[in-house]
Amino acid sequence: MSTAKRHFFWLAPVLSMLISLPSANAAIKQTKGDFEDKFRQLDEVLPTPNVYRNAAGEPGHQYWQQQVDYDIDVKLLEGERRIEAKETITYHNNSPDTLKYLWIQLDQNKFRDDSMSALTTTFGGIGNRGPATQAANGDTPAKLSMGALRRQQFVEDNELGYTISRVEDKSGKDLRHTIVGTLMRVDLATPLKPGKKVTFDIDFAFNIVEEDAVSARAGYEHFPDDEREGGNDIFLLAQWFPRLAAYTDYEAWTNKEFIGRGEFTLEFGNYEVDITVPADHIVSSTGELQNPKDVLTKTQRERLKEAEKADRIVFIVTPEEAIENEKEGTSKLKTWTFKAENVRDFAWASSRKFAWDARGYQQGGDIQPLVMAMSFYPKEGGELWQKYSTESIIHTMDVYSRFSFDYPYPVAQSVNGPVGGMEYPMITFNGPRTELQDDGSRTYSLAEKRFLIGVVIHEVGHIYFPMTVNSDERQWTWMDEGLNSFLDGVAGREWDPTIPWGVEPRDITGYMKSQTQVPIMTQSDSVLRLGPNAYTKPAAALNILRETILGRELFDFAFKEYAQRWMFKRPTPSDFFRTMEEASGVDLDWFWRGWFYSTDHVDISLDSVYKLRLNTEDPDIDFGRERQAEMEKPQSLTVIRNKEEGKELWVDRFDDISDFYDENDRYTVTNKERNSYQKFLKGLEPWERTAFERAVREDKNYYVLNFSNLGGLVMPIILELSYEDGTKEEMRIPAEIWRRTPKAVSKLIVTEKDKELVSVTVDPHWETADVNVENNHYPRRIIPSRIEAYKGKSRNSYEYRDLMQDSKTELKTDDDEEEGEEEKDD
């Protein structure tokens, strides 16, 4: 017998037990025809590395991107709620290509009634944005919401979209231009060669949409002309000027029609913008104010200077001053001039209703040592905005900079208006407000407080992603919304972990097992449910990648490397995937494939646990164990009841008929077995005998755990092992355990003799997004009831109560109740 065979021999009793165990995974047995390699590399999917984007996920040594500079003069016609403007555009061709024409985005044309967006909007159905409608379903009549009627009437009553009155080159010659929906092609008089630039002018105007009516990313909000509201408008201007579409190395012109959901990707450039508004308006804008002496009072300028080093907010325009400013309008005008360098877009807001607070964020470093965090809001913002808006801005910059880079711009702003949440360079639009009560106080619910903190963190976070790390939102919404939702969850839980931030793995399980899931990598306009697909699922995936798969040290290093590599550049998904792998040193192709390219979900079932014991080959030990195991089996019910009835056994009544086998059973040991045992020991090599005798002496517990992958998405198996002595232990098994049999695996776990396993739980912290936690327990637990005994309010509705107002309510007495009943009778 060879050494190898003798080595196998003493393990044979254990192996034979393993082989003979019934298969708990027989129903999903892996076969040749249906094998799928969940760990195959992504090279077949990702674009081939090149001189522009290398295999490490870095910008290549010939990486390029265009630059577009804008000089804009814009006037807000408050009474007409209209914009009139002229712009001078300078386009720098940094590409290796000669361009015969340029493509320009005309986003306001989306609101035309003949736009692709309007014509392709379905009546009801999944994924609609804006006023809700409900389509007919079987016998249920179709319904048209009041919001939908309001939108229809606004579009019918107002001429929307751009009026383009002039497109000329710098010599004053008309440039031929063709409008195609939300795009305009400008044909150049002379082809633009690499390294050259061209300058041209556009005059344009458009009527501003009412945001509450059409559900847009910008627009005006009118406050009722009554004593409580005071009238007046807030104007939020975004996607307001004709701007160049991006020309890229991976797609050339990104000239896909703007339907409404897929946002945009733009070129970086420098802006100088003159904004003419009523003289009593306060303007918040992308960029730095260039003429404060022309538009601010001396007191306001002094307050702004004081705010730079303040520990808490300083009012530049106090709430009381804003209320006073609302009372009377003016026919006079002021022009606010802003400059912004190296930004990819420009937005602004204007209103006489704005209070304005500010506080300097002393960031330090070389990029931008001082950042002015500022908030603009009407009296309706109240204490909620005074307390939390600017502080949330600063908290965001503090956290995000640790994960990426120092905030790169001089200002970061939060503006209250009709838009619930939207981001642009240096400025964000955010929605929640207080409620005016009959006693003159302003109150808000816990939900509104949480919403404001959360939306400010999220939207200011967007100034990092994608306003600085310039991903293509038109194609891949998740690259900005998903990455940013992950980071806003990190920042949010550092603010208040009790707020449900919606980025935990448990938050995505419902979507992942639904029939409306599509791969994360789906183009933005084709996603069925944008929220869970572009925000929650990628955020939860990155949360899992950080906390469960890579660990914080590796993840944080790789993520920061990605952010800094692509700061002020345009990354694609492949650049993110490759950077995270290259910088962490971990092969993550299986993770990207499963989470981003498939609709598989996580459902790992622990089907069975078998306890094995090593045979000692010593008959005096092994036969005794067998006898004990036999005695522990349940007795025959008939035998039990015969004893209870006192029936006497025949052999007990007549002992003279007993023989040898009444004193010895099948587990009696003879010298034949003992001799065989000694022969077995002598046949072992010295090292084999040493190993064997140690295993017998230690008498460890051997457990085989059988797992099924019911959801298809391979993930690490995280175990909580509970022992008879009351202790618990965690074991983390990498996802690679599934590499050969992705449908089912078995795992051997060995414990010390005194560590008897009593139960096992898979994913005890709910960190892998497992959609069914009930098959994670062995033995199975009693499933907690999910049936309510009575119809009641949702648990989450508690945070929507306005406790600030409700706490003023007086407790009624029995006399109050009787008096109330009498009033009803009368």
Task: Please supply descriptive tags for the structure shown above.
alpha+beta; seven-stranded mixed β-sheet; 826 residues; Immunoglobulin-like; 34 strands; six-stranded mixed β-sheet; 29% helix; 23 helices; 24% strand; single chain; Neutral Protease, domain 2; 4 domains
Secondary structure layout plus pairing:
Elements: H1 3-9, H2 12-20, E1 67-77, E2 82-92, E3 99-105, H3 116-119, E4 133-134, E5 143-144, H4 146-157, E6 163-169, E7 177-180, E8 183-192, E9 197-207, H5 211-214, E10 219-222, E11 233-237, E12 243-244, E13 247-248, E14 252-253, E15 269-278, E16 282-285, E17 288-289, H6 292-295, H7 298-307, E18 314-317, H8 319-326, E19 333-343, E20 348-351, E21 355-362, E22 370-377, H9 382-403, E23 411-416, E24 421-424, E25 427-430, E26 435-436, E27 442-443, H10 446-461, H11 478-495, H12 509-512, H13 530-550, H14 552-565, H15 573-584, H16 589-596, E28 604-612, H17 619-631, H18 637-644, H19 650-653, H20 671-682, H21 686-698, E29 701-709, E30 717-723, E31 728-733, E32 744-751, E33 757-762, E34 777-778, H22 803-806, H23 814-825
Parallel strand pairs: 1-15, 22-23, 23-25
Antiparallel strand pairs: 1-2, 2-9, 3-8, 3-12, 4-5, 6-9, 7-8, 10-11, 11-20, 13-14, 15-19, 16-20, 17-19, 18-21, 21-22, 24-25, 26-27, 28-29, 29-32, 30-31, 30-33, 33-34
Helix pairs in contact: 9-10, 9-11, 10-11, 11-13, 13-14, 14-15
